[in-house]
């Protein structure tokens, strides 16, 4: 067995263990008898465990992509319903951090994409947003210039200028300062590029001050 296969197996095992930790923490969070000090500590552990779990999912997915063990399963998706699911999956985390999570999407909007892959990207973006926002997060989707565009925005300090001026996000020399991990950006770019329609190919984009005053990460799907 190759080293990378062993590593992938270990990542899968670690992900399962972390999922158990997250499930246990979720149960403790619901215990109303927990005092406020311990509740804050539990919330911190909960957020970091979810963040690490998302990173492991990204690593495992990238491994499968590189070894051609995964390809996008493109299906028609009710986009508004899909975003509602993302909101529900992250509700406990944003509420525990006193963050207002809102969405904006035409209820009749439909798109064609791999639901599981895009779900992983958006959940990771929301997880990062929780760390960097002041108190607001916005998830939106719209049809624009022939693409389905998902955006996750916050009202935090925004992306640093070196990241905005270098949109070649897969370049190893990109300055990914301020904790915005290279892995997350590389993962999102890879997932976007796996979505094709004729000569069109998906891509990602960073900007500041789109609708909220902080960073805005968008993923464009043809």
UniProtKB/TrEMBL annotation:
Q: Does the keyword Lyase apply?
A: no
Q: Does the keyword Secreted apply?
A: no
Mind listing the GO molecular function terms for this protein? phosphorelay sensor kinase activity
InterPro entries registered for this protein in UniProt:
HATPase_C_sf, HATPase_dom, His_kinase_dom
Q: Which Gene3D superfamilies match?
A: Histidine kinase-like ATPase, C-terminal domain
The Histidine kinase domain is annotated at 9-222
Q: Which UniProt keywords apply?
A: Phosphoprotein
Q: Output the Pfam families linked to this UniProt entry.
A: HATPase_c
The entry's protein name is Histidine kinase domain-containing protein
State the organism named in the record. Sedimenticola thiotaurini
* Species lineage: Bacteria, Pseudomonadati, Pseudomonadota, Gammaproteobacteria, Chromatiales
């Amino acid at each position: 067995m190759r080293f990378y296969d062993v590593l992938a197996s270990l990542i899968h095992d670690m992900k399962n263990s972390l999922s158990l930790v997250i499930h246990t923490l979720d149960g403790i969070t619901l215990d109303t008898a927990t005092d406020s000090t311990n509740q804050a500590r539990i919330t911190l552990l909960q957020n970091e465990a979810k963040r690490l779990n998302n990173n492991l999912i990204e690593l495992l997915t990238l491994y499968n992509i590189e070894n051609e063990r995964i390809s996008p399963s493109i299906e028609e998706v009710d986009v508004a319903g899909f975003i509602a699911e993302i909101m529900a999956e992250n509700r406990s985390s944003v509420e525990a951090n006193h963050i207002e999570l809102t969405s904006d999407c035409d209820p009749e909007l439909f798109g064609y994409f791999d639901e599981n892959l895009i779900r992983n990207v958006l959940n990771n973006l929301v997880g990062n947003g929780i760390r960097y926002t002041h108190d607001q997060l916005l998830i939106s989707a719209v049809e624009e210039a022939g693409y389905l565009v998902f955006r996750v925005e916050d009202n935090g300090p925004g992306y640093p200028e070196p990241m905005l001026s270098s949109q070649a996000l897969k370049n190893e020399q990109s300055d990914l300062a301020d904790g915005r991990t290279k892995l997350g950006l590389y993962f999102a770019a890879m997932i976007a590029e796996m979505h094709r329609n004729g000569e069109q190919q998906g891509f990602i984009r960073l900007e500041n001050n789109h609708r909220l005053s902080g960073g805005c990460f968008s993923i464009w799907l043809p």
